[in-house]
Specification:
Layout lengths: L9 H69 L4 H32 L6 H17 L2
């Protein structure tokens, strides 16, 4: 920093400093608001994916267990199983497949929600830089 003499009175310098600091904190608050909005939008997107996954899981259970179970059961009867055993085995097979698909979609959405989507990294680092600058300038 260059050493130069400032002929302004101390009260004017302090007023300028207070104005600069308040403006700086206003900008930091605006940054925090923008970052919170961005994080909220990302969380809403993950929740939408979670809901779609849940709807698919419910729909898959209804449709697949009514149609695919009967089709697989007919196939197993043609292979020599008795009808009650074929129906039970086909229900288990289809149920496991649907459950795995639903689990994959739901766990993906939950892990996205658990990620660092609610951190204020930019705001924190910006405030820290501002505090460092203020500390440097204070006698």
């Amino acid at each position: 920093m260059a050493n130069h003499r400032d002929d302004r009175p101390l009260s004017e310098l302090m007023t300028g400093l207070v104005g600069d600091i308040s403006g700086l904190f206003r900008k930091e608050i605006d940054l925090a608001k923008a970052e919170a909005s961005e994080n909220f939008n990302r969380a809403v997107g993950s929740l939408e994916t979670l809901l779609v996954g849940l709807i698919f899981a419910i729909g898959a259970i209804g449709v697949l267990l009514s149609a695919a179970v009967q089709g697989l059961g007919a196939f197993l009867v043609a292979r020599g199983l008795t009808e009650p055993n074929a129906d039970a085995l086909s229900a288990v097979i289809i149920g496991v497949i649907v459950a795995l698909l639903a689990w994959a979609m739901i766990s993906r959405s939950v892990s996205t929600l658990r990620s660092n989507s609610l951190n204020f990294d930019r705001t924190t680092s910006s405030v820290q830089r501002d505090l460092d600058v203020v500390k440097e300038r204070m006698p």
